[in-house]
Design a protein that fits this description.
It contains 10 helices and 4 strands. With 454 residues, it is α+β, with helices and mostly antiparallel strands. Helix 8 packs antiparallel against helix 9. The radius of gyration is 40 Å and the shape is elongated.
């Protein structure tokens, strides 16, 4: 565990401290990481798309039940028939017409349809896959929001450090000019300081542009302008590597990672598709119920009732069965297709498992390396500060030249920028490790958010 040093302690000159004070004062209306995430969750297009897809699969899962439930229909109709009857040998022609009215209710209940049952089970598996996809989208949003949040903080630090370096170089340039005027230094010192000052000006422009770009990216993510993240608290403690060995994290990913869950569900769906194909050889059995009424006005084609009518009511109950015999080898070829797709899904699952294991190991090692870099950069910061102090003293007594001081200043501020970035990378790395093995939740932002100065 490494301590984050007070921001004001990064610099010793009062002018530098003033710059940082101005930078920190801009966070009066800042938002926390959790607030940023809540805004992004309600605005981000990728997450909203995954959420809508989950709702669609939820409705589709209910549709799968329809093939197992009875179907009922109401039918009705009316037919007007006109007949011309000719009798021989008298050759008598008679015109006659009649009307037939029908109405009925018919119901069919599947009793044995293995393909329908497999379709229903597939719809439930698809719902599980959609839920895993939604979880994966949420984890991705957590990491993207955190990365964008700390990118802005890192860009702010870089700009602050560049401005502080510009102030220091400007003082060194003024000192070189004074020494040249009194004859204690050459024009080379002045020109070196001027060149370094011009370089820092260019770096300041680049840092300011980078900050603007990072802010725009964060604003587009959360859907709000004029936002500003909180800075890290003074004396905050970076969290260590989470408990558990690297192999333990990889092992847990087998059950936790939504990508693996999706691939495993896709394999189950592919197996059910094979069952549906095999059902093409199996019989189907349905229960049928019917209540039908036929009313004949003025008779029928065989009976002449004159101006009277009759009514026929038919109530039917039955079981219908169907056994496929031959379908042009379509069923056999469909089975071959689904078996191949099942093997593909199994291979895809193995590929996802390997990718998740690699990503988890990479994230774990990256977090360990990041904490080591923070420790090394903290030591380098102290050493660079000591080197700068020594070079400034040596320049005053004439044993060091101006370029030595400028190089020491450049090294110090570069180290400070690298240290600030390394700290932010560690915080994001904590979340990326949990994302890599699939255990990341929104509650994990609480620990990171607690390090922010609210």
């Amino acid at each position: 565990m490494q301590h984050i040093r007070p921001t004001l302690a990064l610099f010793q000159r009062s002018s530098i401290g003033l710059l940082i004070g101005i930078a920190l004062s801009s966070t009066a209306q800042a938002q926390s990481l959790i607030e940023m995430y809540d805004m992004a969750k309600g605005y981000d297009a990728a997450y909203q798309s995954a959420k809508s897809q989950f709702q669609a699969n939820l409705a589709k899962a209910d549709q799968g039940k329809a093939n197992l439930l009875p179907t009922a229909g109401l039918s009705g109709g009316a037919t007007l028939t006109s007949m011309e009857i000719t009798t021989n040998p008298a050759t008598t022609t008679t015109d006659r017409g009649f009307t037939t009215q029908t109405a009925g209710v018919n119901l069919t209940q599947p009793l044995y349809r293995p393909a329908n049952l497999a379709t229903y089970r597939q719809s439930q598996k698809a719902l599980d896959a959609a839920q895993a996809a939604l979880i994966q989208a949420e984890q991705d949003l957590i990491v993207r929001t955190s990365q964008a949040y700390f990118d802005v903080l890192g860009a702010q630090d870089s700009l602050t450090f560049v401005k502080a370096q510009k102030t220091a170089v400007a003082e060194q340039l003024a000192s070189a000019k004074r020494n040249f005027e009194v004859g204690t230094a050459t024009i080379t010192d002045t020109r070196e300081a001027q060149a370094r000052y011009d370089l820092v000006i260019a770096q300041e422009i680049a840092a300011d542009n980078d900050l603007r770009v990072k802010k725009v990216a964060l604003e587009l993510l959360v859907g709000k302008t004029g936002i500003a993240p909180f800075n890290i608290k003074n004396q905050s403690v970076l969290p260590p590597v989470p408990e558990g060995s690297m192999d333990t994290w990889v092992s847990n990913s087998e059950q936790l990672h939504p990508g693996i869950q999706q691939a495993r569900t896709n394999l189950d769906v592919a197996k059910l598709e094979t069952e549906k194909a095999e059902a093409g050889h199996k019989p189907t059995v349905d229960l049928t119920l019917g209540y039908n009424v036929q009313r004949n006005l003025n008779g029928t084609s065989t009976v002449n009732l004159g101006n009277t009518s009759n009514q026929i009511i038919a109530v039917s109950t039955g079981i219908s069965a169907n056994l496929p015999l031959f379908a042009g080898f379509a069923t056999q070829n469909r089975i071959r297709e689904t078996v191949a797709l099942e093997e593909k899904a199994r291979t895809d699952l193995e590929g996802v498992q390997r990718q998740v294991a690699l990503a988890t190991r990479t994230a774990y090692l990256g977090l360990q390396s990041g904490l080591g870099q923070v420790k090394a950069l903290e030591a380098a910061e102290s050493s660079s500060q000591a080197a700068l102090d020594a070079n400034q003293l040596g320049y005053k007594v004439g044993v060091r030249i101006n370029i030595d001081v400028l190089n020491s200043q450049s090294q110090l501020y570069q180290t400070k920028r690298d240290l600030a970035k390394a700290r932010y990378d560690v915080l994001v790395g904590q979340l990326k490790l949990r994302q890599a093995n699939g255990s990341l939740k929104a509650d994990d932002l609480q620990a990171v958010n607690a390090l922010l100065a609210k």
